Predict the structure.
Amino acid sequence: MSARRPAAVIVLAAGEGTRMKSRRSKVLHELCGRSMVGHVLAAAGELEPERLIVVVGHRREQVIEHLAEHAPDAEPVVQERQGGTGHAVRTVLERTGALAGTVVVTNGDHPLLRGATLAELVRTHEDEGNAATVLTTEVPDPTGYGRILRGPDGAVTAIVEHKDADDAQRAVHEINVGMYAFDGKLLAAALRQVTTDNAGGEEYLTDVPAILRAQGDRVGAHTVPDWVETQGVNDRVQLAQARRLLNERILLDHMRAGVTVVDPATTWVDVQVTVEPDVVLHPNTQLHGRTRLEEGAEVGPNATLTDTSVGAGAVVTNAVTVEAEIGPEASVGPYAYLRPGTVLAHKAKAGSYVELKNAVVGQGSKVPHLTYVGDAEIGQGSNVGAGSVFVNYDGVDKHRSVVGDHVKIGSDNMIVAPVTIGDGAYTAAGSVIVNDVPPGAMAVARGRQHNIPGWVERKRAGTPAAQAARRANDEAEQRPGPGES
Ligand code: UD1
Ligand code: CA
């Protein structure tokens, strides 16, 4: 990190972003669990600036609301009309007054840029005692970018925008990334000299280096070796490319820290997810939000986890989980849906075609097949039979059920809340449980079976069923009875 905290970082995010073709502000489009401007602010935040300022203009209500929610430290400054990047910074400095010390300016549409790179930019700037330091890189195709012009001694003399460049200048592959460190006082003075006399008819921030140099101030450059990190996003094609690059970076970090990623091409992990060593991520796994996986957990294939915690050694296969807590050595899926408020304790199981919501399943308890458990608490060592439903909704209100320890709920039960089933109780298959069951009782809540002999032969005479019944009855009659030979 830099020796001193910069006086400010100014993030430029007022532009229209026409090429996104969106109702949403360009900088609010998301990748890897954060908005584009959120990534830029996270990188900027690593510098611990005295002030973090975001210039807003187009769709400013959306951006201001987003900042209030996700980056409350950031101060929005409105640029009423988008008069160019120089105009944007001038608008800020007219609001704040000239800022003493280092002022970093960065475009808002570069989500791949690392905080460490911004810190190096600031360090170069301060070590060299520059008035301005420009972040540059060499790209294979510089079309559209501002080109870096250097003098015979290699020093930066100016930045020329693509639109304004001649053929010789366009042949330059070293570009202006769109990040700068300035001396705040000199920046404010230089911006007053910037004109709109150019192909874009805008006040270019990129005119500042030449203005400073002309008055004898030092202008330097900090060059990033890996140009990929400097890529901007102007349309949804570049957004998808940036998302894949950022995801690759996230996965590499996890793999280097001891996580097995079986198929990086189909595994997507958001920036704020934490994964401990010896976790295995199988193909088609998506980890979103603040999901947290503990040591040795195994997730996927085909799992999408959002804001979910998974305990050590748990296994989650073919599942969708949202705001769920999966305990150590618990097992989920295949084909399970865990909704908010689900808590599976140590070694608990939510099996195939099982949906849980706002439900606690105690240690070692199992909900193995075809079951919905909503608004319930199940104790330890209990089992819920296949095809059961915790009937939690009476059409107006939701109610809660409580199941004790070592309870065996039979298959195809309806547990009609609110109801309490005591420790060690059993319920018979096919029961509709509407009343509490005392500990240790067997609850039978279904019609008693009653057979009508000969009904099929009388009422369905001549059908294959009647014929089959006839044969079975004849064979039974011919069989020797007890004691006969
Ligand atoms: C800018 C640079 C160019 C550089 C490129 C890198 C200028 C004049 N040119 O060009 O040298 O190679 O970035 O991507 O700066 N913005 C405002 N207010 C405005 C205009 C723009 O806030 O009035 C914001 C935009 O939202 C965007 C950033 O500034 O985040 C850059 O603006 P953009 O129009 O995209 O500049 P480029 O043409 O990409
Ligand atoms: Ca741009």
The chain has a mean pLDDT of 96.
